[in-house]
Amino acid sequence: EDLTKSIAVLKERYPGVNSTDFNHHVAFLEVVLAMQKADYVKVKEVCLKQIALLESEKFYPRPYVRSFLLQLISVSISTEDFYSGEIAIKKFLSLIPVGSRAWFRTQQLYTQLAITTDQYSLSANLIRKVIEHKNYKGLAEAVKERIILLKAYVFWLGAIGKIADRGENFKSFRLAKFLNSVPDFAKDRQGLNIPVLIAQALWLLHRKKFEKVRERLNALKRYSDRYLKNNKGTVRTYYFLKAFCQLADSNFHRNGFLRKSEKNLKLLNQHPRSKDEQNVEVEIIPYERLYDLVVEQLDLRLH
Question: What predicted TM-score, i.e. pTM, was given to this entire model?
Answer without folding.
Answer: 0.90
